[in-house]
Amino acid sequence: MPSPSAVVCAYSSVGTAALEGLLKAGVEVRALYTYPQGADELWFTPPAAVALAHGIPVHKAPDFNEDSVYAAILAHQPDFLFSFYFREMIQARVLDIPRLGAYNLHGSLLPKYRGRAPLNWVLVKGETETGITLHAMTPKPDDGFIVAQARLPIAWDETALSLTAKAAVAGSELVAGAIPGLVDGSSPRIDQRTLGPSTYFGGRKPADSRLDAAMTVQEAFNQIRAVADPWPNAFLETPLGTVKVAWALPTAESCRAGCFRLTREGLLLGFADGALRIHTLKAQGLRVERPTEQAELLHRLGLAEAPALP
Questions:
Q1: What pLDDT digit, counting tens, does each position of 192-238 carry?
Q2: What tens digit of pLDDT does each residue of 9-25 get?
Q3: Domain of residue 46, residue span
Q4: If we measure between CA atoms, which residue out of 92, 130, 11, 122 comes closest to residue 59?
Q5: 93 with 232, same domain?
Q6: Number of domains in the chain
Q7: Are 190 and 239 members of one domain?
Q8: Is residue 157 domain-shared with residue 15, that is, in the same domain?
Q9: What's the CA gap between 287 and 278, in Å, rounded?
Q10: What is the percent of the chain with per-residue pLDDT over 90, rounded to a whole number?
């Protein structure tokens, strides 16, 4: 029996891992559609690098839904179309091309956390579990029956980076394991509506990572870990510019809400019900971790005695 063929649309480290899962399962990938890697995204190996290493043609079309892309995919006559963390909604005419269906890999336990940046949002919302889902695509976002899911526990100090690494491993295994059932038609077809109500979150905007004095310590910590390095980081605004909190941890020590407090052990930032101990700050082109550096930065920003948060 010949190997099943596929056209793949993919990006991110999860997209790379899922592509590797397809190749591991013996799928003949006839083309990859992806994006140029941004200067702030060099921390992961892009899907294009894996594709090129396997002799798979790589395309970076400005508009995936344009007529020329449709014609090219039609010419491939793939058995499958896969979307792995692809950034564009795919038109129905393209979804109708593959003989055995079009499937998307989404970073949550659907129907919860439909939409963008699910791995960041579950951290912001303080979830203790999430997952990854392979589902049939429709013209609606993250819609369609589910064929496979994997659950992922979320550690108390999980970051977006560590959770993404978990999702990448799980996604690769999920995709590879699903191929035989998708080929012979034995895969489950689970209606998302039978799994409970859906929730939707849009793409994260810079303002979504702002810290506020009214937050609880847990809410602030969740905000910080959801956008910890290599993401852009949670932040607060000062009269002399933005200060990013790259990492901090809850502490039993006290600090007035909205203020910094320097202690012998380091720097505290107060919230509604307690404080975080700041491990890493970024401001004015500097990354500071030692207490003496943190004290110097606060004096430079005029925050040594003044409230830091609104």
A1: 999 999 999 999 999 999 999 999 999 999 999 999 999 999 999 88
A2: 999 999 999 999 999 99
A3: 5-201
A4: 11
A5: no
A6: 2
A7: no
A8: yes
A9: 12
A10: 83
d(CA 277, CA 79): 53
Of 201, 220, 235, the one marking the end of a domain is 201
Q: Of 151, 144, 72, nearest to 114 (Cα)? A: 144
Distance CA 69, CA 64 (A): 6
Token pair in block for residue 301:
């920003």
What's the first-to-final CA gap in the chain, in angstroms?
A: 65
Is residue 37 located within the same domain as residue 117?
yes
For residues 33 and 52, give the distance between their C-alpha atoms in angstroms, rounded to a whole number: 12
Does 181 lie in the same domain as 148?
A: yes
Residue whose C-alpha is closest to residue 20's, from 59, 49, 57, 60: 49
Q: Which of 201, 230, 260 is the last residue of a domain?
A: 201
Q: What's 211's domain CATH number?
A: 3.10.25.10
Say if residue 37 is in the same domain as residue 61.
yes
Alpha-carbon Rg of the chain, whole angstroms? 22
Answer for the pair 162, 120: CB distance below 8 angstroms, yes or no: no
Considering the domain architecture, whether residues 47 and 119 belong to the same structural domain is answered as yes
Question: Which tokens in the block code for residue 58?
Answer: 């790589």
d(CA 86, CA 81) in angstroms, rounded, equals 12
